[in-house]
Amino acid sequence: MARMCKPLRPCGASPAAVCRRDSRHELYVCGVGRSTQGPVFSQEPPRIVHFTNSTGVTVNCVADGTPTPAVTWTMQDGRPVEEVMGLREVLTNGSLVFPPFPANQYDTQLHANTYICRATSAGGTVLARPSQIRAVVVGDYEVQVYDQLVMAGNTAVLRCAVPSYVREYVTVTSWVHDDSFNIYPSLHGGECDIVSLEYADDTLICL
Asked: What angle do CA 135, 136, 139 make, to 5 degrees?
């Protein structure tokens, strides 16, 4: 004869709900089993991860719980992290891998972004602290300065354009005029401010 289940709490509140027999009232009582334990990080990813394109890096994220939680990664905006062939991998154990890559395959969306590890099980979901991933490309790079057309008597602002993959690690130290005269830049972004421009045609080099 089938017996009805009288829950201590709504059984639907957790997939891990179990029933025990109450012989006194000849029914089964439902509740959440003690064997269920929400996910807890045993190895949380670091806040900042720097690596070079010649070495690559593996970012580990490990969570424990009962049942065993599934570990996944998302971007800061909530989009799931997917594999990008040769540039980004998500292993079944929850590790996020950035293999070594050639300089011309640097991608700011992959190599200069914020990632979040999450662990999910029947016991709930927990989010790790955000991890800022920064790849540094090792090798030669060139800076550029674009021509500015300025009327005489006005102020010219010259900017030194540094490639994005090394911009965070490069400081503009000076601008050189005629290979001998150094102009030291402003404190804001290495700009060269020329006030009351008098030259009709002149050249400056960014260092």
From this structure: 145
Comparing 5-14, 27-36, 148-157, 171-180, which segment has the lowest mean pLDDT?
5-14
Domain 37-136: assigned CATH number: 2.60.40.10
Of 180, 182, 169, 109, nearest to 143 (Cα)?
169
- 13-27, 99-113, 178-192: which has the minimum mean pLDDT? 13-27
- Label the pairing between strands 144-145 and 160-161: antiparallel
Averaged pLDDT for residues 137-150: 75
CATH class of 140-207: mainly beta
Cα 79 → chain centroid: 12
3-state secondary structure of 98: strand
Q: Is it the case that residue 93 has pLDDT exceeding 50?
A: yes
Domain boundaries, the chain: 1-35, 37-136, 140-207
Closest C-alpha among 73, 81, 83 to residue 128: 73
